[in-house]
Amino acid sequence: LDSQYGTYVWPCAVVLAQYLWAHRRSLPGKRVLEVGAGVSLPGVVAAKCGAEVVLSDGEELPRCLQSCRRSCRANRLPHVPVLGLTWGRVSPELLALPPVDVILGSDVFFDPKDFEDILTTVYFLLEKNPQAQFWTTYQVRSADWSIEALLCKWKLKSMLVPLRSFGADRERLAGSALPGRHTIEMIIISLPQSQGT
């Protein structure tokens, strides 16, 4: 696999896109930021459903950023901005982001060394947008890899979303030619006092 993992459509992206599709009537006018977007399937679905979307991936990953732009062009979404944002780093681009209602992240909890940086960025965005939520899907790769302690550390609330509740528990939905077993989970993360969007 390419070292810039964002050049593949991972099963988690399919599941998150299914969640967005199931909630498409709530998306028009929502301000959505996808982090670690890669090929941007969830962000593209959100934009096609009427959300105001900004796509982002690591500023040090030019092929991933190009992949975001290519997905926008292929889906006739040339107006969707693509930004380089690096997890755990407060940059001028991060500070200049417009308000958001929903942050999307599919399979961003891939490498444990990045977990805290991801949650640092998410926490910063949630503090800036207290009613926002982080909708994320992740592949269960190891019982030893968990974000629960970090959620407690950052005092973030999480809610597990059963895949069957939005029709994503079908065997072939997240089918993939990529190697390995694909057990996908979805959680919504917010600040404790948030009522959500």
Automatic annotation (TrEMBL):
* Keyword Transferase in annotation: yes
Q: Which GO terms describe its molecular function?
A: methyltransferase activity
UniProt-listed GO biological process terms: methylation
Q: Which GO cellular component does the record give, naming just one?
A: nucleus
Signal peptide location: none
Q: Is Lipid biosynthesis set as a keyword in this record?
A: no
Coiled coil residues, start to end:
none
Q: Which keywords does this Swiss-Prot/TrEMBL entry list?
A: Methyltransferase, S-adenosyl-L-methionine, Transferase
Kindly give the InterPro entries that the UniProt entry links to this protein.
Methyltransf_16, SAM-dependent_MTases_sf
One Pfam family assigned to this protein is: Methyltransf_16
What domain of life does the UniProt record list for this protein's source? Eukaryota
The entry's family comment says: Belongs to the methyltransferase superfamily. METTL23 family.
PANTHER family found in the cross-reference section = HEPATOCELLULAR CARCINOMA-ASSOCIATED ANTIGEN, HISTONE-ARGININE METHYLTRANSFERASE METTL23
Instruction: State the protein's name.
Output: MET23 protein
Q: Organism, per UniProt?
A: Jacana jacana (Wattled jacana)
Q: What is the lineage of its organism?
A: Eukaryota, Metazoa, Chordata, Craniata, Vertebrata
